[in-house]
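Students often ask why we bother encoding 3D structure as a string. The short answer is that it lets us treat folding as translation between two languages. Here is a chain of 146 residues written in the first language.
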Amino acid sequence: MTCAQIRKVLPLYSVDGLRAGAARAVAAHLAGCPACAAELAALTRATAVVTRLPAPEPPADLWPAVAAALDAPRPLWRPVWRPVLAGALTLLLLTGGAVAGLRQPVLPAAPASVVTSAYAVQYHLARINDRLADRAALGLLVMEGK
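And here it is in the second language, the structure alphabet:
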């Protein structure tokens, strides 16, 4: 694995967020790369500093404001025009989209490399919120290096 690939997954590695196989691959690289090992040390120090910071306290009036909003009386009926307007707007947009779609010329398909790159970007953005995607992400990174 290259240093660039390791640096992409190093934040997860620093907080034990990688699966065992991916963690072993990163550890093997770190054993022979002082630059990446220094990057890991910096991440570890930064994590230690952040964890020592005090947790922010919520405002004292937060819960009373929430409780008041929950206890506020709600109208028993909703104005009828809102759902009707929403339905009409949806129908208008769908009809306009269908008509516009029929008038557009057919474009050639994008090259596979463009589609693959777009998929990789979307995947990397999605894996930020998915800690289980690290094995697949590491596989993508290895494939990019070949």
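Translate back mentally: The chain has seven helices and no strands. Keep this in mind for the problem set.
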